[in-house]
Amino acid sequence: MLTASGQEIRSHYVSKAETDGTIYHTLPVTLFENPEAGDLTFDLTYKEHRGGRATLNFTCRMARPETVDSVRFVSGGVILSGPVGRLYLEPEKRGWKHRYTFDLDASQLCGFFDERQLPEVMLYIDGRPWLYRAKRSAWRSYAPIGYRIFEMIRINEGAE
């Protein structure tokens, strides 16, 4: 198991205690890129006592307003995938800004953020794959932080 001892994580997430559990939200981070389309930015939201589910929202840019129907985030043996819901499409100077959301099993998030891996994201548009690869240095810098955030959440939720 990886540990990010001494890793400062507080500036990478926000949390709020609510009557039915604490909600955690990671700040948006850009770790993936596609040479033709550009970067993919994502953020994660987790609320305690919701059956171990988390929400991943992501933003990407494409030349046309095509609809992404599903996504697959892969890091080593961890696969986070599923159908996506469109939040919005917005025209920009050169193309379209896409924003999507999907639900995932939060228990896999510690394993996903493994700095030894070089993950990728595959978006599917009408069954056609659109590949975003991890930016190596950005991934290696952020993976221990992501791991530590979800390790903290797991420990806090089990401390009742």
Would you give an account of this structure?
The chain is of the alpha+beta class and 160 residues long. Helices cover 16% and strands 51% of the residues. It has two helices and eleven strands; from the N terminus they run βββββββββαββα. Strands 1, 2, 3, 4, 5, 6, 7, 8, 9, 10 and 11 form an eleven-stranded antiparallel sheet that branches. A hairpin with a 5-residue loop joins β4 (38-47) and β5. The longest helix has 22 residues, at 136-157. Mean pLDDT is 92; it is low at 1-5.
Keywords:
160 residues, eleven-stranded antiparallel sheet, 16% helix
Low-confidence stretches: 1-5
Structural class: alpha+beta
| Main β sheet profile | 11 strands, antiparallel
Q: What is the CA-atom radius of gyration, in angstroms?
A: 16 Å
Question: Approximately how much helix is present in the residues?
Answer: 10-25%
Rounded mean pLDDT score = 92
Strands, total number:
11
Quick rundown:
This protein has 160 residues and is of the alpha+beta class. 16% of the residues lie in helices and 51% in strands. A hairpin with a 5-residue loop joins strand 4 (38-47) and strand 5.
Protein topology:
Layout: E1 13-18, E2 21-26, E3 29-34, E4 38-47, E5 53-62, E6 70-75, E7 78-83, E8 85-92, E9 95-105, H1 109-112, E10 120-125, E11 128-134, H2 136-157
Antiparallel strand pairs: 1-2, 2-4, 3-4, 3-11, 4-5, 5-9, 6-7, 6-10, 8-9, 10-11
